[in-house]
Task: structure prediction
Amino acid sequence: MFFTGIDQHRLRSTLTTFTATGDQVGEATLPNDRATLVHYFARFPGPHQAVVEATGRWYWLRDMLVPAGIDLRLAHAKFLKAIAYAKVKTDAIDATTLGRLLRTGLIPEAHMIRDELRGPRDVLRARLRMVTRRSSAKNSLDRLLEKWNVPRVADRPPLYQVQAAAQTALISVLTEQIHALEVSVRPALFESPAVQRLLWIPGIAG
Result:
């Protein structure tokens, strides 16, 4: 049995591999090239577990490793820091720490979402970010009115009207985009039994 800790970055990853008895048998910093990484893992035939922190770039890593027979786990970044605190941090140290924690069963695991739910979740996250931006634009518009205690920005000089027009246009664009995201994800959500149960609750279904 082999255990590999992966410290993943946008362009490269550092990997450290241990045996079941704790012997370090591999360490490398490699570009995030699929063929190169698959070749690294091919050096260790047999059962193999790997772990990477649950950041926003693990999808492709899972899709590459799981078909190759690698059992990839996600480490919860926040809880991991509480366990693996280190004054000196390098990519190699992080990969080594991940590998050792995985081997000893001490990885605080994060939920790995099912493949078919990735798209809907990411759409909902994008929608949430847009809703936050729209709320910020509405608040900025309200601040213009509060600053001068007037009911309409049209009662203020042209520079303030320009600001108000910009925020109003932004609100309009974001509202359109939010609606488009909602329409795109609705079929996938309505197929979920959990959503169907929620729709029976008064006040949620509308």
Notes: Residues 115-148 form the longest helix (34 residues).
